[in-house]
Amino acid sequence: MKSVEQHTLDLLGLVATPEATELDLLQAHGTVLAEPVTSPVSLPGFDNSAMDGYAVHAADLAGATAEAPARLPVVADIPAGDPEPAAIRPGLCARIMTGAPVPAGADAVVPVEWTDGGEVEVRIDRPTAPGSFVRRRGEDVSEGETVLRAGARVGAGEMGVLAAVGRRTVPVLPRPRVVVLSTGEELVEPGRPLGPGQIYESNSYMIAAAAKEEGCEVHRHGFVGDDPAEVWDTLEGLLVRADVVITTGGVSMGAYDVVKEVLTRQGTVEFTQVAVQPGKPQGFGTIGPDRTPIITLPGNPVSAFVSFQLFVRPVLRALRGLAPDPLPSVRARLTTPVSSPLGRRSYLRAVVAGAAGPDAVPEVSPAVRQGSHQLSALADANGLLVVPEEVTEVPAGALAEVLLLPGR
Ligand SMILES: Nc1nc2c(c(=O)[nH]1)N[C@H]1C(S)=C(S)[C@@H](COP(=O)(O)OP(=O)(O)OC[C@H]3O[C@@H](n4cnc5c(N)ncnc54)[C@H](O)[C@@H]3O)O[C@H]1N2
Ligand code: MOO
Ligand SMILES: [Mg+2]
Q1: Domain MoaB/Mog spans what residues (predicted)?
Q2: Tell me: the pLDDT tens digits for 365-392?
Q3: Cα–Cα nearest to 72, from 135, 125, 132
């Protein structure tokens, strides 16, 4: 059987260098920058007030005290957005609001709390220093400065920076378009009545959600039955929508394992067994005239979920222009013993609970129901407990590696 590492590397071999495109600022959220972004403006763009108060000449306040306050005539009122406030001569001052341009002549701002709030004449009860409460032009970003590097993920903070430097469109690597298709004659759409031998289709919903959580644009096609012609026609019809196709089901040894049957005939998809539990039967390759990458996950729901996290997630990250890193992991202490088949690396759904204190080790509790058909524990799990290939029993109290599931 193939190792988890080798299979991950083989899948990454499917990824071509993503092509950059220019997207509107709002649509760029969650994508990765294709080029560095430089600022065409300085931030702040002009010297402006950090406080609601009075723009003054600092020298006019020398020696001011509560008993002998400085008294200055207020000659102007400067709100934020004032295009060109008149210059302030020595001995005078202007009322000024936060973000308003500091007028020529003035060299400091005094917060209103240090004054009597006068509108015709103001009393100021303490001295100040030049530059006080003035936000200088360019002190955050200077014109021409690089504000975001190529490869940066556009999150909320980056959105703020892009808008603040006036970008309307951004050069990014677009979200990969992922098509999800499940197979199985027994499947029924949730919400419909179930017949004998039938089950609700859950894989396509689960995998579509997981791909969305990885920043992809997902087309969930739903499912098709176990008819080879129907499977092939459906796949062909979906290719125009896909940078990558993910199927679930029909890849094991069964007589009706239709994905394997159909794609083996095409000769461009390889089916293999990976030394992992769950998720042993796997397939990957390309289909169609544009050699669209396809990853065929096993049908057991937990197998599909775990294979997505181990094998598909790095591919989607690479397609987005991110490093194809595996899930982050922690070392945690097992609360109950676990067992695992020899020769396969097990990934057990588990709950990791935070450690108290700086030296405390987190605890990990594996779910009781670990069958690859037993979905229920997916609902609470925030981690996948790893049991190495050569280990069959791990006692309670032992330290183990736990992969942290995204978004939990
Ligand atoms: N003789 C052998 N049988 C099996 C082997 C094996 O090595 N030898 N491997 C087992 C393992 S491990 C797995 S994993 C599964 C993989 O099965 P397939 O990929 O062929 O998937 P199906 O046969 O279509 O379905 C398996 C199972 O999952 C349910 N299923 C499928 N699709 C969905 C869906 N969209 N939503 C919900 N549930 C789904 C399906 O009803 C079956 O119960 O093969 C083992 N067998
Ligand atoms: O490898 Mo299968 O994924 O156990 O159920
Ligand atoms: Mg099967």
Answers
A1: 179-318
A2: 999 999 999 999 999 999 999 999 999 9
A3: 125
Distant-in-sequence, close-in-space partners of 214: CB < 8 Å, separation ≥ 6: 313, 316, 317, 320, 406
**How far is C-alpha 379 from the chain's CA centre?**
21
In this model, does residue 355 exceed pLDDT 90? no
Number of domains in the chain: 4
Quick one: 334 and 369 in the same domain? yes
Same domain, 26 and 167: yes
- Per residue in 316-354, pLDDT tens? 999 999 999 999 999 999 999 999 999 999 999 999 998
**Both tokens assigned to 135:** 């936000």
pLDDT above 90 covers a percentage of the chain that reads 96
Cα–Cα dist 167/154, whole Å = 13
Residues 284 and 218 grouped into a single domain: yes
Question: Is the ipTM reported for this complex over the cut 0.85?
Answer: yes
Question: 113 alpha carbon to ligand 2 midpoint, in Å?
Answer: 69
Cβ–ligand 1 contact at 273 (below 6 Å): no
CA distance 406 to 325: 12
- Do 158 and 183 share a domain, yes or no? no
Q: Are residues 160 and 238 in the same domain?
A: no
Read off the pLDDT of residues 58-90 as tens digits, 9 standing for 90 and up: 999 999 999 999 999 999 999 999 999 999 999
Give the sign of the dihedral formed by CA 364, CA 369, CA 370, CA 373: negative
Q: Does one domain contain both 224 and 276?
A: yes
Residues 58 and 167 placed together within one structural domain of the fold: no
Ligand 2: atom nearest CA of 372 is 5
Q: What mean pLDDT comes out for the span 170-186? A: 97
pLDDT of residue 408: 87
Query: What pLDDT is recorded for position 359?
Result: 74
User: Residue 374's domain is classified under what CATH number?
Assistant: 2.40.340.10
Ligand 1 atom index nearest CA of 298: 19
372 lines ligand 2 (CB under 6 A): yes
Probe target for ligand 1 pocket from 252, 302, 307, with the most ligand atoms within 8 Å of CB: 252
Residues 121 and 201 in one domain: no
**Domain end: 256, 289, 320, which one?**
320
Structural domain that includes position 333: 329-404
